[in-house]
Design goal:
Blueprint: H1 11-18, H2 22-28, H3 32-50, H4 58-73, H5 76-84, H6 86-95, H7 99-118, H8 126-147, H9 153-168
Amino acid sequence: MLAFGVDRVTLAEIARRADVSRPTIYRRFPDTDSILAALLTQRITEALDDVPRRGVGRKPLVRRIIGLAQRVRDDDVVMSVLHQAPGLAMFYLSERLGTSQQLLLDTVAAEIAAAQGEGSVRPGEPRELAAMTMLITQSTILSAQVVAPILPAERLATELAHALNGYLAP
């Protein structure tokens, strides 16, 4: 994908590079988009694992989200799919929650509920707050390149932290 671009990835090329037959690939994946979706899920899950929870409360939660956003923005595979396969990206950004989005929602909702319990996050349904937090963060990730001349990476992270802290504060 990185070598040829997302739109030129074929099941035949994936099978060749994986040194397996095309029927082997077809037994697990019906098409290239499903392979890309599985790859995105794997990369985002790995990013979440790479940015562990460091305590309970709004500040550790926001730090984790900022770290995760940075990790995703630095992931060449994720960003290639987002920028080179806009149809696939838009499907998961506007029509359907994907597996990785569900995982992120569940994780953030649980952390929001814990932070509410200790008083650093405002009242509200944790999954609803997590969904809005995800929308804010996704927007930042998707638009970071556009605003890079105005908000370089470190300032973008600072401003995202301000937005999330303000949104979640009691």
